[in-house]
What we know:
The chain is mainly beta. The chain is 3% helix and 59% strand. The radius of gyration is 45 Å and the shape is extended.
Amino acid sequence: MKEATKRNILKRYSAIVTAFILSVVVIPPSAFATHPSIEGETIWINEIMFNPDGSDSGREWIEIYNYGTSDINISGWKLWEGGSNHTIRLINGSWVIRGFSYAIIANNATKFLQDHPDYKGTLFESKFSLSNNKNETIILKNSSLGEVDSAIYDHSILEGYSYEKYPDNPWMQSKEEGGTPGEVNSYFLEWIDVSKEVWNGETWSDNVQVDNGSTVTFRITVYNKCPCYLETKYLLWFSGKIVDYLPCNLNYIEGSVHDIILNGSPVNESLKQEMINGEVYNDTAKVIEWNRIPEPINYLRSLSFKFNAIANCTLCEEGVNKAVAIAFFAPQNLSWRIYVSDNDTAFVACKPTIKVKKLVKNETGGFAKETIAKIGEKVTFLIKVKNEINASLNITVRDTLPEGLIFVNASPSPSDVSGNVIYWNLSGVDHNEERFILLNVTVNETGIFRNEVEAWNESLNVSDRDHAYVIAGLIIEVKKEVWNESEEAWSYMVRAKVGSDVMFRIIVRNKGTALPYVVVRDLLPPFMSFSSACPEPDFINGREIMWHIKDFDANETRTFLLCARVEQVGEGSNVAEALAFERLIGRDKAIVKAVPRPALDIEKEVSIDNVTWSKFAWIDVGDIVYFRINVSNNLPANISNVKVIDKLPSFLKYNYDANIEPTGANDTYIEWWFNKLEAGEYKIITFSATAIGKGYGENIVHASACGRFFGKDRAYVLVQHRPEIMVDKKAWNGTAWVDELYVKEYALNGTAVKFRITVENTGGVTLKNIEVQDIMSCGLEWTPGTFSPQPDELTMYSITWRIDSLKPGETIHIYFDGRVHCDSLNKVYAYAESDIGSANDVDHLYISKYPIVLAYEPKSHDFGKVEQNKVVKTTFQIWNNGTGLLVYNLTENCTWLSVYPTEGNSTGEKDNITITVDTHGLAEGNYTCNIFINSNGGKGVFTVRLRVIGIPELSISPLSQDFGYVPKGESVSTTFKVWNSRTGTLEYTISPECDWVTVSPASGESTGEKDTIHVTVYTSGLSPGIHSCDIRIQSNGGNKTFTISLNVFEPQPPIIELIKPVKGRIYVRNKPLLIPIFFTTIIKGPITVHAVVSDPNPGGKIERVEFYVDDELKEEDIAPPYAWVWSGWVFGSHTLKVKAIDNYGIENETELKVLIFSFGFGAPTTGTVYGKVTEAGHLFKKPIAGVTVTAEPKYGEGKRETTTTGSIPLINKGKYKLHLEEGTYEISFEHPDYKTYTEEIEIIPGEEIKLNVSLEPK
């Protein structure tokens, strides 16, 4: 392959190589093994750039390489050159150089990164200087100044090329200009070569054309091309992986590796099987990984193997198949390793053929792959036939209608219709021509019907097929609701606090025809987790819950209750769906808005076993039910006088066993008082109650404190007799009725046997519509005329009795005779209905001629420590240690364990039994479960033990920070908290995804304490505009993201206009006398310095304005008008300066030279606003007396003043005057007969403002 291509491949797979490095061990020739660690300071000088192209100043560098497995810390090491030991300083990365990793020592790190901007590895700096005119010695020394490695470079190599090391110390000029800093040396890229070939039917090639569905065979060959001029011929070892990337038109045949040739000889069968066992195939990504590969490859030899794939031209018609090998060169003793990689490709294209496509018109009027139709409705199909072969063809089309669809007509007309099969003969279809067929049918049955079409040409033996679906008669209505506690009603939306449980109700109604099987599926939103459900789900996978409905009758309705816990703040939909025939036919949703927990939070849960907690419990009369109350203070301050009240429903009786002694209690009322709950403190109260009667109700708990904080929660309990039935099948052995019958010999016509079936109502409600069915297995037959009572149905292999009803405790017996011819297993089933649900049971009767012995190993398994929310598995074996047929079944006595399979048989072979333990919902502690084995060869118990330990959970707050507008070049910072909100120790690392953000610390641990993380944002390198960055927090308790955002802008200085004094004017006692005609401003007496200041930056505002005289600060003003009275004893020439600073810290200033003569008196302290108030709408102004004029300070500066307009005609009627301190005011004019008028003005000491106002009459 080309060198540049090889280098790109090596870069791409460097991360994969590093991951495999840590587990490599010694592999003898032609065997699978791993390689031992290498001790010592395994660092050598690997590459020297002493004469870069152009100027050498600051651009020289030395590459070092750790050729061993151990990490090496080079802190304190020296680089000896030119007679001096040069200090090595860390710039990027770590002092620790990982095994088989590179690092660069540059004499100027900044210039090195400018020359190599893509370099991301470890970088050091040392002030050395290498000669271009003579050979020099370089020595790498450890912290004790012991020599680790040395090198002498040849100064005569070409300018711009590096000096590269090769094994056993030969050095030579690099093949690539500029060298290979931080990467494998350039000559090594020629030492490995990968060849990918495909069999085209005659020879191995790099391309092939295939038929759809045909088998394609590939060959991968990896060559060791180590150059022969080296004294030692190095072996090529695999670092654990050969990867093959299949194109979209191929599917790998798993386990198809064959013809493995290593170093010229086939490998043995065990090595081949090892390679097959080590393969991993990702069908979605179409990637094959072989992780156990025969090795090593000897000098100038190769490894080759073949594998097969199936062509799938329906997905795409062509693609490139690429193989990648990741390996390393090393001597036999593995004293060093150099990692390399190479790849090659083969091209696979599908042969031209004919194509057929089948579509059906859907309810929107368009054509798709499926549609929904009613019984009796007409459905239209579209068939497209295309000829892709470069010749005119005659094409036959055959459409096969399924039962349930009836042919009506078609266009063009068919050439033949035979029942449900329709034919068309399309003649003269040209190259790339497409023909269309419209087919009309009617629907006459309920179901999902697959309609297939096939097209072919016999002479060329090419064909294609396709299908479309009709979903007929399926109408299921799904209604999803959520319980709203505040309204005490079912609703489509609810607000719920984090940590609380939410109850959902799913109502499913079949409004179509009867269906044999329906799946109800519920998908919780991401911020919620499953707690419990009634009835019990048939399948739970994270947030997905499923129930299976069998025999769903027309107009039948089923209801499902589901409880889920709110884990974090969010808003989303809880979706419920109904599926039949693997199709979605009904959907609804309820919305949950999750909000933070309130200040005083209370949570109520219920349990039937004191282990698993939820919001709902279903128990029987006499059962004990357990309650748990969690009261927490979520404020950052203490809460005093907290009162908790729990009210039980009337059918429950308190057992007086609370873990915290109540301050008052009776059978249905319990009360607790707490003097104080500190910030973050919580109390957990547990107690139990006994069901003394039937009923359904809620157990409500209230919490209150200080008359300001309130909380309420509830749990639900249903006390009801369960429907239960028991069936028992026995045979008479001459002395007793037994579950296992042993026969000495089987008579020629069968041995006579007497049977008894017992059916009992073991529940607390009346059963009805009871059906008992006895399945007579092969080898058993019933005897006519011996039944008592008579069966309702009788076949050769089954007997069925139907019983109208059975009261609680009522029992019936069924007797009959039969004959047995061989070892048999006889099963009997019972099924019953009731007003509150159904019940069923099954029993077994074993009949055998020979002794049967149950055997199983091991007898128990201890999982040790298992984290919460984990699933672990183990297995044991069951077999028949005697003769005959062992028939067994397994049951367990716990809810957190499952067994598969639960029944089986053995004539001596060993059956594997898988035990799955799920710790979701289990509290910390020790757990034991017995699995009972019942069989016709004895009984046994397999015991499972484990200790459940807590798991940490990552929490952060807040989740984001928006800095708003930030000037370019400024840095801003913030903090967020990280902590463990559950148990155990949380270990976390923090990494920003942008180079302009830093965090400190970048890692830590928490057992509950909150760690403060400091975030700093640098905007110097950011362009103006909106930027955001995700900071990833990864931990053993989950992952989260803290997001920052900001809007960067180019900062502009504040705009300052000096209003007074103005350059060139004369001012006497704060009044200007002349227009600006002088070069110097002349001031006599005190003067009010006044500036108008504005901020042009987005989001900017003026923080303050400073007034200076000869660079001495005299006054600060923080609100407009920005003014300062310059008074006191002042004479001569001075420089007046006004400086403005905005909220971003951006400054601007203006200066003015003045000549001032002030004697220190007469400085104004107020300004004046005056004028006249008249009535609007008159040609001649009519003054208004008695108007109240009020000046209200707007920004807190100044003093409120008020006056009234005068009333003396021709003198002061309608006139007013106010003397105000400096500041901004709202001047209002109020009169009972006129509309109020308001205007904003700025008052500057010594200045007068005339404000005439006209008021409109009311």
